[in-house]
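Sorry to interrupt, but I need a hand with the structure work. Go ahead and set the record down below:
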Amino acid sequence: MEKLIACVHKRPDALCRLICFPWAGGGTSQLAQWGKLFSDSIEVFCIRFPGRETCLEEPFAKDMTSKVNEVTSVLLKDLKEKPFAFFGHSFGSYMSFAVALHLKEKYGLEPVHLFISGAHAPNSEAILPLKSTAVSDVKDEEVLSYIQILGGTPSELLHNEDIQKHLVCTFREDLRVLQTFSFEKAEMDILFSCDVTCFNGSDDKLYDLQAWQELTSGDTSFYELPGGHFYLLEPSNESFLTKHITRCIENAGL
């Protein structure tokens, strides 16, 4: 449990858990710290993917299905115990959606709210170029350049050759996992009933967020915050996000 889940601020009496899923190549350091920004009613878990932090020696996940099964098996007891919400950014949005879908189909469980950030809807054609990129053909320099353009990684880390190599490797492996995720809405009888909130940065590329509306019978809302792809790391945006997420969870009538 402790290897896969980071919980910096434990709140065993919380009414709800917020499960956070980080971006490609990312660890738990930023989102796990959200725990201190929420009230005692919300406990924050952050998913730790293999190949980083305390899971550094663990082999990278080979596909989305095995990763979803692992996350679900570790979280299931806690998710059955009390209400939960999901927050995912970029790659984490797809990961959180895949886990939510599995929980709904196999266990009849779903989040009280799904918070999506910086990602196309999985049923959108806009995601296809990302899924069809030949990961093995992309040079390390191109991956590193892309990571630098996205931002979110301190420049001093990018100047360290060992960290560079590890970051490029984890990013590449996370993208490979994403490319194994197959979702066809036409095949789905089960839609979510929870509300969905989509966030994105005003200076980030355009995402097909509207298609998220097709995936739930609940309400879908959209918020654009100032900044690029990693707008959520700005303190003012972080404050907005945590306050808004708190309000949404409280309004879920727990």
The chain has a mean pLDDT of 87. Helices lie at 29-32, 64-81, 91-107, 128-132, 140-150, 155-158, 161-179, 235-251. The domain at 5-246 is CATH 3.40.50.1820 (Rossmann fold).
